[in-house]
Design goal:
This protein has five helices and six strands; from the N terminus they run H-H-E-E-E-H-E-H-E-H-E. It has 159 residues and is an alpha+beta fold.
Length: 159
């Protein structure tokens, strides 16, 4: 992902996650803080079919929806998948699974011991198939509520 991709990323985010709006500044900050965790899926004709935004973040913590991080805390060994969004055309052929595996491989090679995410849009089943499990932590309830009542915090071991 490059800064020039952000308008297309925002368009995809609006289509895939219309009930979870985030400002372009959120995506720009994640790209600046963790460029190795931000990627786009190109369609071969110069357009984008999807993206993933991920970065180190403390295990058991979830950034509130549409919030800036400021910085990544030093010494963090958890890799957080902030967003994976694919247009319907890209959902065929295993792209989502390949992206999830690539992010997990990157996290392990970066020395992380775990991965985490917030599952939205009924995606918990997809993430379970990729080794994630739900973690029920009352301390996360208020933050998860900034997403919606169905949001689930999930984790898995890296590697």
């Amino acid at each position: 992902m490059a800064p020039a991709d952000l308008p297309a990323v925002m368009r995809i985010a609006g289509l895939v996650h219309p009930t979870y709006p985030e400002d372009e500044a959120v995506f720009a900050e994640r790209l600046r803080l963790a460029p190795a965790g931000c990627h786009v899926l190109a369609d071969g004709d110069g357009g984008l079919l999807g993206y993933v935004v991920s970065h180190r973040w403390p295990r058991g913590a979830v950034p509130k929806l549409n919030s800036l991080l400021g910085e990544i805390p030093a010494g963090t060994t958890n890799w957080y998948i902030h967003d994976l969004a694919l247009l319907p055309l890209a959902r065929r052929g295993g792209a989502a699974g390949a992206i999830a595996s690539a992010v997990a491989d990157h996290a392990a090679s970066a020395g992380c011991t775990s991965l985490a995410l917030v599952a939205v849009n009924d995606s918990a089943g997809f993430w379970r198939r990729h080794g994630f499990h739900e973690v029920h932590d009352p301390a996360l309830a208020a933050t998860l509520a900034s997403y919606d009542d169905a949001a689930r915090y999930m984790e898995r071991a890296a590697g």
